[in-house]
Amino acid sequence: MKAASILTLVLLTVGGLNWAVVALTGGNDLVTMLFGASYAEPSMIARVVYTLVGLSAVYQLVTMKKAFTAS
To answer: How many folded domains does the chain comprise?
Structure first.
């Protein structure tokens, strides 16, 4: 459980920093720059990264809800 929390927090941090770069540079997406293709048509690896970031957000929301309702 702790490893999953750490991994999902790392993925969310990467995703958040990527969105900051997109906003600050006018659209330069680090994920697609690292794993090929373009923002309009990301590679399969980039899609996997985006999916993992999204699933990490869901995981963190569920565990956060449990933390707030446990008391």
So the answer is: 1
What does the pLDDT profile of the chain (71 residues) look like in tens digits? 789 999 999 999 999 999 999 999 988 888 888 887 766 777 888 889 999 999 999 999 998 887 788 65
User: Is the separation of the CB atoms in 39 and 32 below 8 Å?
Assistant: yes
pTM, two decimal places: 0.79
In angstroms, the CA 2 to CA 22 distance is 30
Give the domain extent around 59: 2-69
